[in-house]
Amino acid sequence: MDLIEYVTRHASLALVGLAIFAAMIVSREIGAKLFSMLRPVLLPPEPVRINESHIVAAVLGILLVLIGFGFYLAVDRHEVRRDLVVSEASALKTAYLRSEFLDDPTALQSSLRAYTQARLAYGLSQESDRKAKASEASKLQNPVWHEVIVATKSLRSEPLPSLISVPINEAFGIADRRNAIADARIPTPVLTTIALYLFAMTGILGFTTSAAGGQHRVGSFLLFALLTSVIILTLDIDRPRGELRVPQIAMSDALAAMKL
Fold first, then answer.
1. Fewer CB atoms near the end CB (10 Å): N or C, the chain?
2. Model's pTM, two decimal places?
């Protein structure tokens, strides 16, 4: 696991934010120091007014586009996760309600409740437990399907078996998609490019502000804080088990309906 992957998946975002903010300050000071070292070469003997803010603006503009692209990817994936939870809960609830048409739905309904409970536990689990909870839920799919076959064995010529099996198959398929998308993250090359542009921009900012005859540290640090907050928010949204987690209300409601 490389550094970028570790940061996006496991590292404390508070520490990541502090590290990014500190790195931007260091990069800015390096840029300012570099100008001081090169000043005899870059400037003529007579003082002249230098305005290179357009360079900073250009680099900052590209950086904001990259951050915006990463933010869009994270939010879009978050919405997909949310929609999948709603769809899976709806399919399980539909299968449970349709099982009422069976002569003896007790065993099937019990299996569906246990499976729904396991999927809810998966949705509420921490990142360290996610794969174990997913495996536990997957193991309950065979018992559910077995009960479907047993309960509808005498009704194979009727439409009822398909009315029950179709939403269950749909729920199983959605579960696989949820498990897969939980491993998806913003591509590492995108994050690497953002990091490179971030530190290039802060270095150029330090260089150009020094060239203009000032430091503007307060304004620079405020800009760094704003950029850091957006990056940390993006990383948090991109984590399925971050602070901004996908609500499991739909799955909880489905399980509550099964227990009525």
1. C
2. 0.81
